[in-house]
Amino acid sequence: MDISKYIVKARPGVVGGRFEEKRPLRERIELPVKRHIFINRDSHPDADIYIAIHEAKELPEKVPDYQVPHFHNTDEFYYFIGDHPDLTGLEGQIIFEGTVHKIFSPATVYIPTGAVHEYKVTRGAGTVTVLFRNRGYTHHDKQPDVAKGNQEANRFAGYIIKPEVRPTTEIKYHTDAAPGVRYVFVDAKLRPEAGFYTVVRSVSGVSSTQSNYVEKHTHNCDTYHIAIGPGPDLTGLTIEFIIGDEEVVTESPVGVHIPAGIPHSQRIVRGSGHFFNFVPKSNYNDSLVQ
Questions:
Q1: Nearest in space to 107 (alpha carbons), one of 193, 185, 201
Q2: Would the pTM count as exceeding 0.85?
Q3: Surface-to-core class of residue 141, CB atoms within 10 Å of its CB (0-12 exposed, 13-18 middle, 19+ buried)
Q4: pLDDT, tens digit (0-9, with 9 covering 90-100), for 123-159
Q5: In sequence order, which residues have a C-beta less than 8 Å from that of residue 27 and are 6 or more positions away?
Q6: Fold of 3-161
């Protein structure tokens, strides 16, 4: 097994590469965030998903708008994580159909297919993880329907989700020997129609004596991980993966694609940061091969 095609270091988010990105940006705008690409068609050719991170640091006092109103042909998710220990410390906004909704980390923003929106970070420091359910995502510029945005403001506000802290043992093959705090950002309980599961494990000062806490297991769908740390360019977190019969230790920032049917396990072994688990199912346990 060529494990290197599953585990790939993140790269700077620049326009280019084999599959050039088309992005909904205003003309001649300088982004106030630094972009990192974790999973796309260049890095993981077999992965049917796109994941990038917008890193916010030393924002200007007034952040200019940097997106134009647009919609996508697939669902999109934003995961706001601030630099404070409890994941607070980053603020932003999303405009759904012309109506502004504020975002305070930690938070998930669910953007259904076809919803006209634009977003920006506004204050603080942290990261916004951007995920498209389908790697073949497109964007289409479109002026908002302001009447719809006003009339359905409560529905759109419901797409901003506060994560929950839950025990690791609510999912199979995982134990509470796991380090740090497990935040459920979206699942069937928080937003059932999203049909998606995302957990972030936030850790601090993990040492090499950390015990195993995930048994080897198999999913009936592709699953994905990313790891980020607090250091320069998101360094600072070390993860051990066992995929099939191969073991590898890798450093953040890194994106991981595990195809359906491949047994695997993972363990945070050193450092501080955030470890993400993405599963395209409403319930994690429904993705498991028993």
A1: 185
A2: yes
A3: exposed
A4: 999 999 999 999 888 889 999 999 999 999 999 999 9
A5: none
A6: Jelly Rolls (2.60.120)
